[in-house]
Amino acid sequence: MFEVIAIIAVVPAIAIAIVLILAATKPDTFAVRRAITVKAPPEKIFPLINDFHQWGSWSPYEHKDPAMKRTFSDVGSGKGAVYAWEGNKNVGSGRMEILDAPAPSKIAIKLDFFTPFEGHNTAEFTMLPQGDATLLTWLMHGPAPLMSKVMQVFINMDNMVGKDFEIGLANLKRLAEK
């Protein structure tokens, strides 16, 4: 009987140890990047991202919870603009603030997640002219604390978040090319 109890106690302990060891091998930072070519000048794309009120027309996260509560700062767009949200388990809650927005080439955003997991990252959109088109890149990067590393043992963050970025970029392309 003691042997059975010992096995029941040891097996989960070994599984937890293996997960923690695998998590420890993950990098201390993460980055998810996607890009798309848009047949429009940066000046047409920039305002769609620089004004948080426009995100409802293209961001894939805006449609994951139709009842999501949104608040916007008095600053409508550009540096200092703030957008906060609170929603269901699909979107959680968080806050974004535009840190820098040199028109029409780049927008840097401080991105804070509060629920379901806390995270403090940076999102960057860059618009690089290429003839009659623009290379639009969406990058999110930040630290990978222990909980993030444990999740990465089971979930490929690049694939999961990257799919949403691809949808958002395709939506921006559709809007800018009208």
UniProtKB/TrEMBL annotation:
CDD domains: SRPBCC_1
Membrane-spanning intervals of the chain: 6-24
One Pfam short name: Polyketide_cyc2
Domain of life: Bacteria
N-terminal signal peptide: none
Transmembrane among keywords: yes
Keywords tagged on the record: Membrane, Transmembrane, Transmembrane helix
Protein's UniProt name: SRPBCC family protein
Species of origin: Bradyrhizobium sediminis
